[in-house]
Amino acid sequence: MAKIQKQYACQACGAVSPRWAGQCADCGAWNSLVEDSVAKPTPFQAKHSLQAGGRALQLVGLDSDIALPPRLPTGLAELDRALGGGFVEGSATLIGGDPGIGKSTLLLQAAARLALSGHSVAYVSGEEAADQVRLRARRLGLGTAPVMLAAATSTRDILTTLGMGAPPRLLVIDSIQTMHSDLIEGAPGTVSQVRACAQELIRFAKERGTAVVLVGHVTKDGSIAGPRVLEHMVDTVLSFEGERSHQYRILRAIKNRFGGTEEIGVFAMAEGGLAEVVNPSALFLTQRDESVSGTTVFPALEGTRPVLVEIQALVVRLASGATPRRAVVGWDSGRLAMILAVLEARCGLSFSTSEVYLNIAGGYRVQDPAADLAVAAALISALSERPVPVGAVAFGEIALSGEVRPVAHAGLRLKEAVKLGFEAALVPAGAAGEKSPLTLAGFKSLNGFVDHMLGRG
What we know:
Elements: E1 4-10, E2 16-17, E3 33-39, H1 43-48, E4 71-72, H2 77-83, E5 87-88, E6 92-97, H3 103-116, E7 121-125, H4 130-139, E8 148-151, H5 155-162, E9 170-174, H6 191-208, E10 211-216, H7 229-233, E11 236-241, E12 248-256, E13 264-270, E14 273-276, E15 295-302, E16 305-317, E17 326-329, H8 333-347, E18 354-360, H9 372-384, E19 392-394, E20 397-398, E21 404-405, H10 410-419, E22 424-428, E23 439-443, H11 446-453
Helix pairs in contact: 8-9, 9-11
């Protein structure tokens, strides 16, 4: 406990004296000194106090005229779209995805394009030897790109090497789970090692102005492995999604401090690497000339980009006593259960004795709540064997009361449908007033929508 020290303070002027006196030496007042007890700070407190001894910070206002950090376009338009215009100098980007999805291929293509355009790029691989990376570059036709390549896992060695000369404009670390810091005990990939190595690499990015890209492993449920704080430390988090059985890959921005989130970039895996897909809507739609029951086209919205996808449903009637099955690919299974419950409770349709299968064509994963009406249209069409017209799209959110609620950016969705040659749209009643060359049919409730689908007037 700190030692109590006595002192005497003048009640007239506030002067402090270590001894009592009848008259204040400063203001001359008589009998004004009163004893005041204060705790004397110990040497430990004086050493560990954070209220003094630091560096004064320069505080600026929100309206200060400060130049924003420049962008570093990669030359891959889809990657730049997901990033918001390219890498930012001094930023840290984390990209995760399933094994074999194409993370290393995408970053090697971006690094090679930046190097060929005159920027200094360093690529450090902790999972492959340098010769393996060179072989991949030759297979992709990028063997002549002046990328500085190294195979290392020691964070100290990497930062020491990069600190000897001018820092590179882009640094790729593949992957952060293989990096090791000799300041922390533990094997590479542990929580403490991942956090410590990422912190040192991010500090290097902020101090030297290098755009650092960290490749992260994912767990079986698709989340990035390691401590959750890793996603908080970086500036941008990208998720590389797609089914390995399909050639299409989707790069989704989950977090972006320098741009909007939920932007996507679409790629197709080809022999020469990942190719950009300029019009993804045409890829996720099947080519069919006649109507097929159980299929509906839905204009999904990813950030500012509308993407038309095909929703497929199959309803199989079972014999009495059998337990029906519900299978979903590319959509939320809980959302499907809710739509089925609303159709049964509010509209009188029975799915309790039927198996229900729902699929999003092309390996696409839909997270937009506006897909409710399109899913309901596919289910009603599959149950009644009445196909939805080929030239029609559908979107809208369904409430538990059976109300068809309006959704955001209806105009963008309709414009994308017009661009691909669609002629009609099944929309909420609030979106029926949009100016569009499409024939719009608006619905306030799911009952009216079911009557329209079944031809009841």
